[in-house]
Specification:
The protein has about 150 residues and is of the alpha+beta class. Helix content is about 55%, strand content about 25%. The protein folds into 2 domains: about 55 residues; about 90 residues.
């Protein structure tokens, strides 16, 4: 069922196809029962799309977190960024603080984001792959840093 919560495209296409076929059947037969079935299929498809919008999966949660990190970088909010890094990840927190003290980020973007959740592992883990692009200047403002794009590791 995870496919339903990740991307509603299949549900939308299947619903449209079935409703179209039922509309053709109704036009040929004129039977109200066929029209009622088409309405039920359409209602079911709409319910599935609404459920997909309301349910936030682990992958979507991680993607939202990564986009939030990019927004924190752009805003220069080191405190918000550090809130997103586990307290026990001291080396990563230190690296982030040192890097952000040397640079002023003006733009941070993610592209081609793919999140894979490994639910079978205990505790569950996730892997995110994306392209990141950051623009900014060093703290003195003398050396611009533009369009440094690199794949995640």
């Amino acid at each position: 069922m995870a496919w339903l919560f990740e991307d509603p495209t299949l549900v939308i296409v299947a619903t449209a196809l079935v409703v179209t076929l039922l509309a053709v059947a109704f036009r040929q037969t004129g039977r109200v029962a066929v029209l009622l079935v088409a309405a039920a299929v359409l209602a079911g498809g709409l319910v599935c799309v609404v459920v997909e919008r309301l349910v936030v999966t682990e992958s979507e949660e991680i993607a939202d977190l990564l986009h939030s990190v990019a927004r924190s970088l752009e805003a220069g909010r080191v405190d918000q960024l550090l809130d997103k890094i586990a307290p026990e990840a001291t080396e990563m927190r230190t690296d982030a603080q040192q890097a952000l003290s040397r640079f002023r980020i003006t733009s941070a973007r993610l592209a081609q984001l793919q999140v894979t959740v490994h639910e079978h592992m205990r505790p569950p883990t996730a892997q995110a792959r994306f392209l990141g692009a950051i623009s900014g200047k060093d703290s003195s403002g003398s050396r611009p840093v533009h369009n440094r794009t690199a794949p995640s590791q």
